[in-house]
Design goal:
5-stranded antiparallel β-sheet, alpha/beta
């Protein structure tokens, strides 16, 4: 299979150049995966154009396990010649799992098997290749017998994480028995908790957890080595696949579809919250929300919402099921502990985030601190999922900046926006459990009169917070540098001003930072210049400066900064940016990695738009947001002509 061999060789050569220690198990694989994927992507782009890349991915997705193993063995012998046999075998086993990872990434309502490439698919940057690479060597292989489970044979790896591995399995002798999903607990800490602490909760879920929206736990083999949980197998992909499907367009307003999805999830999770005692999931994320078909229809079919919309037909929404009830806390714990200790690598974060499985993005601050389970932890996670459904960004956490204005401009009601804000706000402001969230959504989405303030009581506007500056700012930075999310610093609405920006820029505690959010801080050109000149921001790839006072001079300084050459996202929406600043951005060779440029609500005209359209440095751009500026239809046409359909322009 020539196509598969090309893909395997690019990945195999990249591993040999950047990840031999990880392949040998001497260091965590996540520490090397980003360098591996960047190298593999470059090699792939050198050998194949867009249409050829699509063909390579499609060929891999349709490869059988036997074909993948055969091709992987040949490539491993070739690219790892001279390496120890054990290392060659590890490379073979790793490459053999790539087709399964590709199918898992491509699963969506339109293709439950994940064997076709969607029309909008493109590998525009290295990160797009990340979901296709396994995050580590698997413990098991296709064709293995499930240990301690008799006649079940492993068919395909469905996912890996801190908890262990999930495999699709079939019965060896009876094809009339439906396939199942086997979740193996491989983490020693998680195994101990599962046996000693979670068995009671699992028993409760099996007794009380019968609900059409909860993936059924069929059996639990806790004394097996390793312990294994047997679930019904749900074909149709997960919520991450649905979000990717929505990038091609939706059959109704996106905010309405997102609200229906969240309502459905809130009803499911609310059922568990109303058990006695309540069962808190604690690991709600796209990978744990599975998309199913309606009985009698093809997998991935959609169903009508039960919400009483004014439109009698109502937009179509997918049927969903939530998995991992009863083990969410123990499954989430390894990843949360790594995040607290700062042991999570950039590759781990981005690789799992793009799969919709990076738990710390969805965990509430209380859960991250190790506090006792509370149904409001799940409400927080549902709020993050809600925002991701609206934004389409799997690697974003709770909303920041002037997100509420954007959603209202898109047609979402203020009451819904406020309810979303309440879900991700302080615990006392959140609905008390998911069932209450479902009730509030029903009230807000029904044709009945608008709800009273009591329905959205959790949405009072916060009082103005005093500025965070000087020693208080440094204390905040230092505490963040040692926190579970040391890769992210969010100073939204801290009113730090230029003085605070200067102090921030001079802090060595930011050396490991990859995401810096400074929305709503009154930062002007002087503060932007200080950030641009800071060598401590060398690793930042997402810089959010929404709602400040930055003008052209500040933007010019950012554009000229050699320290910001790793930026993939630059958000300078709602500032004072004009054509001169945008021309500087367009001319900057340091912004070649930029995939998202947000310029909403500035003073940009056609001159700036034409500069962007003519820029030789924006080849990786995937999202351009010039809404609410002074650009004429001719300027917008020039942008669309330059970037075409591969770039979202809105």
């Amino acid at each position: 299979m020539p196509a598969l061999r090309v893909l395997f060789k690019c990945i195999g050569q990249a591993i040999c150049a950047n990840g031999l220690q990880a392949l040998a198990g001497l260091v965590p694989f996540g520490g090397a995966v980003y360098e591996i994927v960047e190298d593999a992507w470059k090699k792939l782009r050198e050998q194949a154009q867009d249409d050829q890349v699509r063909a390579l991915v499609a060929a891999a997705a349709n490869t059988t396990p036997a074909e993948a193993r055969q091709e992987a063995a040949a490539v491993a012998r070739e690219v790892a010649a001279g390496q120890p046999e054990a290392l060659q075998l590890n490379l073979e086993l790793y490459l053999a799992q790539v087709p399964a990872a590709i199918r898992q990434s491509l699963r969506r309502p339109a293709d439950a098997a994940g064997k076709s490439v969607p029309a909008h698919f493109a590998l525009q940057r290295a990160e797009d290749l990340l979901p296709f690479l396994p995050m580590r060597l698997p413990r098991f292989q296709p064709g293995d017998r499930a240990p301690g489970l008799g006649d079940w044979e492993l068919v395909e790896l469905l996912g890996v994480g801190g908890f262990g591995e999930v495999w699709k399995a079939r019965h060896l002798y009876f094809d009339g028995i439906a396939p199942v999903a086997l979740k193996f607990c491989l983490d020693p800490t998680a195994r101990d908790r599962l046996l000693k602490h979670e068995a009671t909760v699992l028993n409760q879920v099996m007794r009380q957890g019968r609900h059409p929206g909860i993936v059924a736990l069929l059996d639990a083999s806790l004394s097996s080595d390793p312990p294994c949980l047997k679930y019904e197998y749900v074909e149709g992909g997960d919520l991450a696949g649905l979000m990717r499907d929505w990038q091609q367009g939706t059959d109704g307003p996106r905010w309405a579809l997102a609200a229906q999805v969240v309502h459905q999830l809130a009803e499911i999770v609310g059922h568990a919250h109303r058990m006695s005692p309540p069962v808190v999931h604690r690991d709600l994320k796209p990978a744990n929300v599975l998309v199913v078909g309606v009985k009698g229809q093809e997998p991935g079919a959609r169903k009508r919402s039960r919400l009483p919309f004014r439109d009698a037909s109502g937009p179509l929404v997918p049927a969903l099921k939530v998995t991992d009830f009863g083990i969410g806390g123990v499954a989430a714990l390894p990843t949360i502990l790594e995040a607290r200790q700062g042991a999570t690598t950039r590759g781990d974060v981005i690789g799992t985030a793009l799969r919709g499985s990076y738990t710390p993005l969805y965990a509430s601050p209380q859960q991250m601190r190790g506090e006792a389970p509370d149904p409001r932890d799940d409400v927080h996670a549902l709020g993050v999922l809600w925002y991701q459904l609206l934004s389409g960004e799997l690697n974003s956490g709770p909303p920041t900046g002037l997100w509420s204005d954007e959603l209202e401009e898109a047609g979402m009601s203020r009451a819904l926006v406020r309810l979303l804000g309440a879900c991700v706000g302080k615990p006392e402001k959140r609905p008390k459990d998911a069932a209450e969230l479902a009730e509030q959504l029903t009230a807000l989405l029904s044709p009945a009169p608008l709800p009273t303030p009591e329905v959205v009581r959790a949405t009072k506007v916060e009082a103005y917070a005093p500025p965070v500056r000087g020693s208080k700012l440094q204390e905040f930075i230092e505490s963040g540098a040692t926190s579970a999310l040391s890769w992210l610093l969010d100073l939204t609405n801290k009113h730090i001003g230029d003085e605070g920006a200067r102090g921030l820029a001079g802090s060595p505690h930011l050396a490991n930072l990859s995401v810096l959010i400074l929305s709503g801080n009154g930062i002007g050109d002087e503060g932007a210049r200080a950030l641009a000149e800071s060598p401590h921001l060398l690793n930042v790839n997402r810089l959010i400066l929404w709602d400040n006072r930055i003008g052209d001079e500040g933007i010019k300084a950012l554009a000229a900064s050699r320290y910001l050459d790793k930026l993939t996202t630059l958000d300078v929406g709602s500032n004072r940016v004009g054509d001169e600043g945008v021309k500087a951005l367009a001319a900057s060779p340091y912004l070649a990695n930029l995939s998202a440029l947000i310029l909403v609500s500035n003073h940009v005209g056609d001159e700036g738009a034409l500069a962007l359209a003519a820029s030789p440095h924006l080849a990786n751009l995937a999202e351009l947001k010039p809404l609410d500026n002074r650009i004429s239809p001719a300027g917008v046409s020039a942008l669309r002509e330059r970037f075409g359909k591969r770039v979202r322009i809105y």
